[in-house]
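Troubleshooting entry. The earlier prediction with alpha-D-ribofuranose gave an output that would not parse, so I re-checked the input for stray whitespace and re-submitted. Clean input:
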Amino acid sequence: MSNIREVSRAAGVSIATVSRALSNPEKVSEAALKKVYAAIEKVGYRPNMMARNFRAVRAYSIVVLVPNLSNLFFATVIRGIEDAAQQKGYSVLLGDTRDSTAREEEYIRLVETRQADGILQLRPHTPGKSLEPKVAIPMVSACGCENTPYPSVRIDNTGAAREIVDYLIDQGHRRIGVLSGLVDNPHAVDRLRGYKEALAAAGIPFDPDLQINGDFTLGSGLMAASHFARMKDRPTAIFSMNDEMAIGCLQGLKSAGIKVPEEMSVTGFDDIEFARYSDPPLTTVAQPAEELGRVGFQTLLELIEGKELGNTETVLPYEFVVRKSTPPLKG
Ligand code: RIB
């Protein structure tokens, strides 16, 4: 089992410096802190030991890493986090990381220097792209995915996508387009799997021409719409992997002269506030966004308080919401 002496040896600094880095990081130079934290990771210094130190010096604030602050889904998750955090006397620092690991690392420094006690990550864990968990940093994924190497809270993205595509098939559709989010995002991967599973169960072959890749934004939905509109053998329905892209797509189809829902059905994912006010109102999957935030914070607090959670995951239920964008297919 590793100890503080091994950390000091691996870091090339004195034991006193290691000890100071753990209890009063503000009194240690940035260069030495970096060496100490790297050594802690290298020798695998015991997490509960770290947790004890974290308990001793509490900042009563956490950092929330948000991949896209303009997406209303995340605003609702943050509301849930804020509510739960306030009740426990914690403040919330927002890190608008714009899907950049380098930006995420900047915010992690706030925890390393004890200006915050832990991290709530809202970007699902992508192996090779996302930050790997560090022994010394309490971190929870609040919009997680399967196989997250630290505690996570999530919904069943594959099951929800399968359910919405099953519904489109029940409405009579066989040519169903899919508007994907960023293709290496685990949520997009899982939702695509659900789409393919629903098609396969109905005996409909997957047609790669019906897949357009966006990036979860309104703009990419708008672009995708013009692509779908130009197709010779157009789909009669589109499954969009989030509401923002679906709303952009509605706008684009309208500009291309395609009537929704008469000529094409469109579905979303998230149930952001605008989904019920779009024209037509959007059939979608309602993610329990506030609850994801609340449970995410509660899980993080357990870690900050020294509980060892490994990579436990909490899977919350979603709801399927039918609105006017998906009537039965005519003829
Ligand atoms: O990050 C983009 C999407 O992933 C959000 O709209 C939400 O669906 C999340 O799960």
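This one parsed fine. Residues 67-68, 71, 73, 143, 181, 187, 216, 242, 269-270 surround alpha-D-ribofuranose (CB under 6 Å).
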